[in-house]
Design a protein that fits this description.
The structure is a homodimer of 680-residue chains.
Chain A (H helix, E strand, L loop, with lengths): L2 H7 L1 H21 L5 H17 L14 E4 L5 H11 L6 H5 L29 H20 L8 E5 L1 H5 L1 H12 L5 E7 L2 E2 L2 E2 L8 H7 L3 E6 L3 H13 L5 E6 L21 H11 L10 H12 L2 H13 L2 H12 L5 H16 L3 E2 H15 L3 E5 L3 H4 L18 E3 L4 H14 L3 E7 L3 H14 L4 E5 L17 H7 L4 E3 L4 H11 L7 E5 L3 E2 L17 E4 L5 E7 L2 H15 L3 E6 L3 H6 L2 H7 L5 E5 L8 H5 L8 E4 L10 H7 L4 H13 L7
Helix pairs in contact in A: 1-2, 2-3, 2-4, 2-11, 3-4, 3-10, 4-12, 6-8, 6-18, 8-18, 15-16, 15-21, 16-21, 18-19, 22-27
Chain lengths: 680, 680
């Protein structure tokens, strides 16, 4: 690459873009870790995008109608931090740049959305950003349809690398974007031909242009170092309104550095002499971390360029009716509507009176049927299991190219893409996404489910068919370890409600979260309503509570969740008939119970009685409640799964794996008489 | 669709294919669950494939040189069971067909490889089969290169549905197949245009032909009900030897049934009248589950057609040298070579003497460097992190179109595709795959890692950078819950070795597994060799053992794994200095420890002393060892993570999150003096 030629053709642009290059080189070198080459290679694209196209106001990074910029190639985080610092972002200061990758800073190794307002999403696990961006673009379409172009009118830009495009989730993402004609989504492919192991071609020879076209995208190919070509391509991409656009940018990783066009250039360039030589090549003479004032001034102009547009937008917002302003503010703040509480309570009361016997997936549908009409910000969907996940309610309408008001998304057989796009919708703000699949396919959605927890977004994952109760489809479709998987994940609420009432309570809690995703673990099979006496209080909020007290001396406590609470109640009946006082504790949410104070936990799980837990999943996670807590039981056992399931009708499976009232009662009796020692 | 026309044009073929249709219809109706439409729609393709192309001998389903047939669209399992029964497979009898989806049968809802010899792989979670098939085809290339065409010379056929092709893993799979020019891989796309939620177009409008071409495949489009076209397409696909082939088969789901071309047709067709009407349409007059003898005879002829070829193959095998025959038999049986044991012991001895201080990922490389030369069946690889995962050894060579003897695979940024293809390699037999990525990306590979466990294949997942010890890359790359995730999965060995010696022991165990996958959890950061006195016995085989005994009265036991064993030893030193007798238990594998008898477990974890566990992950899974076991400790605590990590240098992170010798020692002291109660 002839750097001299690039410099001479566009001298001003070159130096402005090179400010990004120099910051990346300096910050990575100082941190002695990170990725220098990507920011250096994509500096030209970023400079043109920010200065000529991106609608934003650096001083107000939370302006709702800003264009969204997502760095899917998150390892190139210094590109984003450099842009934010240069533009005058109030949070990404020069000190933060110098503090790259250090404890307590905002400039983490990969961009973390919760560390700075201007960071739209957390990226680094490859492919997530491009899949998030699909959600961002969908959210914009939905909100524009609802609130009008005066309030919602922006684009979503995303930079993806070769890694993003090799990951499977990119396939799901680009398929969705193409299918739903997301014309305001513009993706830049950093086509630098290099991965960590070597040239891209050692592991991939796909024709990305043809691939994106096959998915229904508008595609352009440009020299990613030519500012005029970049500008023209973005302009052309914006002009295509019925298709997402991909701009394949041929770039040189670590441009102008000794490591240019090599794998080494992908990583941390820390050799002082080589870095000095690169700066000399670039014509960059400023000391480390210093930006010549004329360049910094220009960038600050870029950062404030959107101020006028923001002012006009604020004026338009203030011209809207009071109720419209309030509603817009409410949904953008993620506040639940006032009516939600009464709606949930009414459903609980009705269920406690009519005692429906339904699967909790059906119970979930009953909740959504009353919630969705009063909560127009919900966005439902399923990964091609709508009828099984019970996620669609009649009022929603189907999101499509000709119905942007539709609130239900047919995600197709794309659990991962769905989860990642839902995260994008939630991150955009103004909408509250939930989506369904079979619980076993938590596995497919895992990378995005973890990121929801890390990113602190309240996405709701509706996971039905939550045990061997799924029946004949067999062990590939029967979750066994998936409750443990979600419970092991920090900042995640896992609900496994036992009936309609608990399902309503779980949704009530999930829909009020601002920082925590929820996993709803729901049955395929019908369950009785056990909460037969209406209480306005949300008992599930404490995570676990006494569902049925022991009659006579309390000798045993059975703890259960979901479909096994019915089994616990039947076991209790048998035990009480034999004179064994037995308490049943329903535990719909371990995480919330763990958050209660010790006094409450001890009231629910007092020491003394034997404890048996029953759940049609693996034991991991239950030991704490069986053996732990002050004044703990001396004897405890678990009734559940210790292997994968099998293909057979559900009732036979529960018999086969010994998850029955009889088995539970027997275990209690054995523990009490001491013929069988505690299994621990 | 004009059924009459189809019948009249190819009357013999029609009735033979319709035997598959009738069996599927009857079995699903009897089970009252399952998927009728796919077998009905793909019966023509399957009939032509089995009768004219597939090299197999139904009576010897374990013939090593058979063609592999993989039903990626696993919900259509009755197609496979019907084929096997009709061809005379010894395990899939008529009783099994009638017992479809019932307890204890071989004919599970989705094909399970461990239920019948002829079932090559377990499918159902969509996209897995097509990704497995890439591994099967790679294995064939590698073994043909090693043992020659006389012994290894077969094709891999796979049927994939729209669901398989929407899943992200299909993108990774077809990218790999295209890149590696797997000319003997032939995929049929069941292009029926229907998914569960409706027509495919409601969620996807991709151009699959263009997409496969973009990935480097040879593609044909045919009428999937025209036997001549099917035959010609397969012939043409076989003639293309440098590219994988995709045959897009336009089919009608539930052909001839009232539910044809509808979502309903995807599921269980159980309406007796409609089913009778369908059979009438088909011209099928035999009673339920009965196959007219001339049709059954013809199919049995299909089943025995390969007998001669098999005989010739056996003759060729017997002509090979003794050592060649033995080696072929050994690798196909998955037996470790005799030299393995001595090789591992020599490395252990050397390490115990020289006490290297290396990361366990590096230790793993040291093991592989001595193992790979004596174990030519290993296939290594990494998802674009070769230098970080330390998975490549000098002797391996790189697998490529011009080097089929290469044993190292550059999988690209495709963790899921890698894991699923490794499963395919293992299922093929003759090779032992291992592959690496960062442990945090367990999430990406999860669906295939679970299937390895369910399918009972000994794939080894090399997961490096296994904690916050990863450092500056931050929480997106720092596993916290992933040890718990893998430990919660049935039939999975999770090793977290503490030093070179334990790493060698872990590999020794992993490479001898026949039915169980292994997760190797390895550090980025350097660790001292703690096992400084050589023992030929594999101490890790018991899962946990006393690494350092208490001096004086035993007051505390510290249990740790991996990088935290060093911390435990340092804490012990401090405690002993203060007169507190402290035992350190190294626990590299919880699963193996759980399998030991009670006497051993009690020897390692006797009651009485306080117990503190330390591991840089979440607590879930540790409660059992802290609180459980007979004669359990009264007081226990855990030192580890209860949140996501952060971006900073590793040492600072361990300090920040309080995972230090000081913190552990303090916890022990507090428990002993009782100022801090047990945390449970």
């Amino acid at each position: 690459m002839d750097i001299e030629d690039l410099r001479s053709r566009h001298p001003d642009h070159w130096m402005r873009a090179t400010a990004l290059r120099a910051l990346a080189l300096d910050a990575v070198a100082k941190a002695n870790s990170g990725h220098s080459g990507m920011p250096i290679g994509m500096a030209d694209v970023a400079t043109v995008l920010y200065s000529k196209h991106l609608k934003f106001d650096a001083t107000k990074p939370d302006w709702h109608d800003r264009d969204r910029f997502i760095l899917s190639a998150g390892h190139g985080s210094m590109l984003l931090y450099g842009l934010l610092y240069l533009c005058g972002d109030p949070e990404i200061t020069l000190d933060e740049i110098k503090n790259f990758r250090q404890m307590g800073g905002r400039t983490a190794g990969h961009p973390e959305n919760f560390l700075a307002t201007a960071i739209e999403t957390t990226t680094g696990p490859l492919g997530q950003g491009i899949a998030n961006s699909v959600g961002f673009a969908m959210a914009e379409e939905m909100l524009r349809a609802r609130f009008g172009k005066k309030l919602v009118d922006h684009h979503t830009y995303v930079i993806a690398g070769d890694g993003c495009l090799m990951e499977g989730v990119s396939h799901e993402a680009i398929g969705l974007a193409g299918r739903y004609g997301l014309g305001r989504l513009i993706a830049f492919w950093d086509n630098n031909g290099i991965t960590i192991d070597g040239k891209v071609e050692i592991s991939d020879r796909s024709d990305q242009v043809k691939r994106f076209e096959a998915a229904g995208w508008h595609v352009q190919e440009i020299d990613g170092h030519d500012p005029d070509a970049i500008d023209a391509a973005i302009t052309a991409a914006k002009a295509v309104t019925d298709k997402p656009s991909m701009i394949a940018c041929k770039t040189h990783i670590a441009l102008g550095h000794a490591a240019q066009d090599t794998s080494k250039g992908h990583g941390a360039l820390t050799d002082g002499d080589q870095n000095d030589a690169a700066k000399a090549q670039w014509g960059w003479t400023a000391p480390d971390f210093e930006i010549p004032s004329e360049i910094k001034d220009w960038w600050e102009g870029v950062g404030s360029r959107g101020g006028a547009a923001r002012g006009e937008w604020e004026a338009r917002l203030s011209e809207a009716s009071d109720s419209r302003q309030k509603e817009f503010a409410r949904v953008m703040a993620g506040e639940a509507p006032k009516k939600l509480s009464a709606t949930i309570k009414a459903l609980k009361k009705q269920a406690s009176e009519t005692l429906p016997k339904v699967a909790t997936r059906k119970a979930s549908e009953m909740v959504l049927e009353v919630v969705n009409p009063v909560m127009p910000e919900t966005v439902g969907g399923s990964a091609d299991l709508t009828g099984s996940n019970n996620t669609k309610t009649p009022d929603m309408g189907v999101f499509d190219t000709d119905n942007r008001k539709g609130r239900y998304v047919y995600w197709g057989i794309r659990e991962h893409g769905m989860a990642a796009a839902m995260n994008g919708i939630a991150l955009h703000g103004g909408l509250r996404p939930y989506g369904g699949t079979f619980m076993c396919f938590t596995d497919y959605a895992r990378p995005a489910m973890r990121l929801a927890a890390l990113m602190k977004v309240p996405t709701v994952f509706v996971m039905t068919h939550d045990s061997i109760g799924l029946g004949e489809d067999g062990p590939t479709h029967q979750p066994v370890e998936h409750l443990a998987i979600s419970r092991a994940t920090p900042n995640t609420l896992v609900f496994r409600p036992a009936d309609v009432v608990e399902t309503a309570e779980a949704w009530d809690i999930a829909l009020r979260q601002s920082d925590t995703p929820t996993v709803m673990s729901l049955t395929r099979q019908g369950l009785p309503t056990l909460r037969n006496s209406h209480k306005t209080a949300n008992l599930s909020e404490k995570g676990a509570y006494v569902l049925a007290e022991a009659e006579g001396k309390r000798q045993a406590i059975i703890i259960a969740s979901g479909s096994e609470v019915e089994i616990a109640m039947k076991a209790r009946e048998a035990l009480q008939a034999g004179g064994i006082g037995t308490r049943v504790v329903s535990m719909p949410c371990m995480e919330l119970f763990a958050q209660q104070d010790e006094a409450y936990r001890k009231r629910v799980l007092p020491g003394g009685p034997v404890r048996v837990a029953v759940e049609a999943g693996v034991r991991m996670g239950w030991e704490r409640w069986l053996l732990g807590e002050r004044g703990r039981a001396n004897k405890a056992a678990f009734v559940g799964m210790n292997s994968f399931g099998a293909s057979a009708p559900a009732e036979e499976l529960f018999e086969h794996f010994g998850i029955t009232p009889d088995a539970v009662a027997t275990r209690v009796r054995d523990l009490l008489v001491g013929t069988t020692p505690s299994e621990f």
